[in-house]
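Ticket #4471: structure output looks truncated?

Reporter: J.K.
Steps to reproduce: submitted the chain below (133 residues) through the standard prediction queue, then opened the result file.
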Amino acid sequence: MRGFLIRCGVTGVAVLVASQVISGIEIDSLAAGVVAVMVLALLNAMVRPVLYLLSAPFILVTLGLFMVLINAFLLQVVSVFVEGFHVEGFWPTVGGAILISLVSGFLNLVISERGSMEMVVSSNRPRRIRNIN
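Returned output as attached by the reporter:
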């Protein structure tokens, strides 16, 4: 449950960034934004995997670009069902889907399921093997 709430927060930040950057995506109130984020998070958790599975051949043929259209479709569904959250037109929907995917993907890389910041550090030095006789 904690992981889902963290993902909702990450999605909320991503939707807020998209509404500020892309003209055509508007949030009328804080309540509408919260509801839109919750609906989008639920759709991403429950419906998106099914859509990915059903459209796997299209995803493979387009080398993953069809996933952007699925995400845009889900963003448009949220716009239809949540009053106060508006996405106007095809290109703002696609742009919003891309931006939300990029921002939430980056934040999910940085923030763990426990809510703490994670940093992965790797060394570029090759390993040395010592022979001890």
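Triage note (M.O.): checked the attachment and the full token line is present. Residues 2-110 form one domain.
Status: closed, working as intended.
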